[in-house]
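User: My collaborator sent over this chain with a note saying "see what the structure looks like." That's all I know about it. Can you take a look?
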Amino acid sequence: MKNLKRTVAVVCGGDSSEHDVSLRSAQGIYSFLDKERYNVYIVDVKGLDWYVELPGGLTAKIDRNDFSFMENGKAVIFDYAYITIHGTPGENGILQGYFELLHIPYSTSGVLVEAMTFDKFVLNQYLRGFGVSVAESLLIRRGYEHLVSDDEIMSKIGMPCFVKPANDGSSFGVSKVKNIDQLAPAVRKAMMESDEVMVESYLDGVELSIGCYKTREKSVVFPATEVVTYNEFFDYDAKYNGQVKEITPARIPEDTARRVAQLTSAIYDILHCNGIIRIDYIITKNSEGGDKINMLEINTTPGMTPTSFIPQQVKAAGLSMTDVLTDIIENQF
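Assistant: Without extra context I'll predict from the sequence alone. Here is the result:
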């Protein structure tokens, strides 16, 4: 009898500093996917070296002409790509364009949305036009550093501030700058990750992270996670070495939780996203003492290890990761 199971590639790796983090997310997704429904393979992408993991510790080279590989003398063609690359080329539209050319459905948003959400500065300016509150920011481009003066940064952004790569993940190259003398070293550090650097004003408040996905049949916003870190900010050690307290659902007023969920759903629709996204916010106080919701950034390929935010939130919502991933895949067919 013909095998009717779809063949799914969990595409991981990538060319950023978060390559190894992506591999861990791939293992998480592999463990969550329904093996009764799908044939699942992990595909590691790094530069021009693309290979698929086979049973017994073997690997096979991916033919990039059609995203296929040979197993037991037969060509295997993928029906679907679940992208879990953190950074380029899986989070900025490049890999999405490749799969579009091959007519292979994939788990993330389209080329334009991926490119826009990957560029933190562009995303902030775009969503500001829809009334979304974001921190003040300035952009510094490699080779044009002289166009943004220290005086301009002090007057528009102030201190302390954050200096971060504009076109990369949020785990590497980020600095909290407390005085002007720390600014130039922070910019150099960020430019090791990206040719464009964003200088962003510091917002003092409660940090939240919240996931969302939609299909033709349903709209799901997960309970928000409150992020309490003992470090200066939510950096790599806080994320991946346990130097953080993650509380799901977040300890915020019911009305604020409802407004955060509504804003998350609205942003998903404004951008016309696909698959799971995770939005990070800072809740500050307005002049009347009420909660003000400020968007920090959007992650379109969020971490998917068993202890990552999304699996935590799915569990808190009383849902199953296997069912959620099945929803996302089947929505493309």
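A starting point for your reply to your collaborator: The first strand starts at residue 6 and ends at 13.
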